[in-house]
Fold this sequence. Notes:
Blueprint: E1 8-10, E2 14-19, E3 23-27, E4 41-46, H1 48-66, E5 76-81
Parallel strand pairs: 2-5
Antiparallel strand pairs: 1-5, 3-4
Amino acid sequence: xxxxxxxxxxxxxxxxxxxxxxxxxxxxxxxxxxxxxxxxxxxxxxxxxxxxxxxxxxxxxxxxxxxxxxxxxxxxxxxxxx
Length: 82
């Protein structure tokens, strides 16, 4: 099947992955495995704490990339999945 796209992403020489429970509920259905399943649908509210964690990860990686002393010439990337 196809993979789910990350919620946030940026390319880099090294990519750091993060998995956060940003949505509180994912609607699931039972599959009979005879047809391709539908994509997952996120419903309910967004967990602001998990969203802050993901934004903190992005901020830290951007700070490292913008620094001339930390990892010069080696850009970091990220892929954050819900």
